Amino acid sequence: MSMLPARSARSSRWLTSDRDRAPAALVQVYAARRERTYRLVAQAVDALRQARARISIATIVARSREFDPDGKGVSKDAILGNADARAYYEAHRTEQTAARRSPRRPKLLRPDDEQSGSVPILVRADRDLVRVRQRYSRLTKRELVARLVDTEQAFTAERERWLGANDLVFWWMHAFAWAVTEVAGEPGSYAPAATEP
């Protein structure tokens, strides 16, 4: 036998709407509030349309305070929760054009500083520098700092590899020259060129 608690009426709240659950005495109060919200939204939208201003939830909330005798206006949740007010807003809202939308920021592969340097930086020599500048201008300061640190780390690692390879080549050159002088029959005659510090 299961020891689960009995299901209360509150746990099934989402199954019924507020109108079905409202006590009879509050039905008129809720209806008046819905009507007030719709009236204020309609007045605000009409005023914004007449002023040829942008119609958005934020502008409706701000403008509705002017039409409310109490000065409260309506909230964002009241607009979105009232089906009639929301429909009126959606029918008249100003569409956001593609030019006005903020561009999406590319996600940085390593947002944390601890992961910096974990991905090698691969750059083509023939890349389009205009597009590179545009891509960098969309990054945040934190992303740019992470990219700069990664670049410095990659540059330092590459320089260390280059210096190590040159040291090895230099050693082999001297070893080869020494071996040639030994084979040629002039032991001990090889003297490396003096290098300036």
Describe it for me?
This protein has 197 residues and is mainly alpha-helical. It has two domains: 20-92, no CATH class; 113-183. Helix content is 56%, strand content 0%. Helix 2 packs across helix 3 (57-67) and helix 2 (24-50) runs parallel beside helix 5.
% residues in beta strands: under 5%
Number of domains: 2
The outline comes out as: rod-shaped
Question: What's the number of extended β-strand segments?
Answer: 0
Number of helices in the DSSP assignment: 7
- Look at the structure and give the mean pLDDT: 77
Bin the helical content: 55-70%
Structural class by secondary-structure content: mainly alpha
Radius of gyration, Cα only, in angstroms? 37 Å
Distance between the termini: 89 Å
Spans of 5+ residues with little confidence (pLDDT < 50)?
Answer: 1-15
- Main sheet: strands, sense, barrel: none
State the oligomer.
single chain
Encode the helix/strand succession as letters. Answer: HHHHHHH
Name a few traits of the molecule.
197 residues, mainly alpha, 2 domains, 7 helices, 56% helix, 0% strand, disordered N terminus
Secondary-structure topology with pairs:
Layout: H1 18-21, H2 24-50, H3 57-67, H4 76-81, H5 83-92, H6 129-137, H7 141-183
Helix pairs in contact: 2-3, 2-5
Short description:
The chain has seven helices and no strands. With 197 residues, the chain is mostly helical. It starts with 17 loop residues before the first helix and ends in a 14-residue tail after the last helix.
